[in-house]
Design brief:
three-stranded antiparallel sheet, pyruvate, 2 helices, globular, lipid metabolism, mainly beta
Length: about 180
């Protein structure tokens, strides 16, 4: 059985501002959501409703060994510029005449359609000009499989507030 997990990683202005692939996976689609550039610090995250939905962001979606995987690079005040290494021509933080909240995201399916772009664990995926936020959403094993009684469960190896370094495991699953 698989569950859906998420991890929100806040990058302070003095932190490393690049995103690396957490696993080997196949990126199938990129969505760019224009939006606001509210701050993303802890206070803003507590007080601004739907902060990560309101702010400009680039979302990569695809598949890894355990199922669904998505990485969202969320812009913030003074940091709307998100550089995507697998699509260098993508431009974020473009001036707009008027913010239309219901505007659909700009979407790009990676060619050939449905095949995607393979990323290896540790590959550089994206970068910010300063600090911001990265949101990971992924499927992973949750418990024993009723069919063959295989025990396999994902567990985060980090806790809220931990400082994370490049290459450090966010979690493990016990087979």
């Amino acid at each position: 059985m698989k569950g859906l997990y998420y991890c929100v990683i806040y990058l302070k202005p003095g932190d490393y501002h690049r995103i690396h692939s957490p696993v080997d996976w196949n990126v199938l689609v990129r969505r760019h959501f224009s939006g606001r550039l509210f701050p993303v610090n802890e206070r803003a995250a507590r007080t601004i409703r739907n902060l990560y939905v309101e702010n400009e962001r680039v979302v990569l979606e695809g598949l890894w060994q355990q199922g669904f995987m998505a990485i969202a690079a969320v812009g913030a005040t003074n940091i709307g510029s998100i550089e995507l290494f697998i699509e260098p021509e993508l431009r974020t933080n473009r001036p707009r005449k008027k913010l239309i909240p219901s505007e659909p995201p700009e979407e790009h399916l990676y060619a050939p359609k449905g095949v995607g772009v393979m990323l290896k664990k540790g590959d550089e995926v994206a970068a910010f000009n300063m600090g911001s936020t990265v949101v990971l959403v992924f499927q992973a094993p949750t418990s024993k499989s009723p069919k063959n009684n295989d025990a396999s469960e994902f567990e985060f190896s980090i806790r809220r507030g931990d400082k994370i370094r490049v290459g450090e495991a966010l979690g493990v699953w016990h087979a």
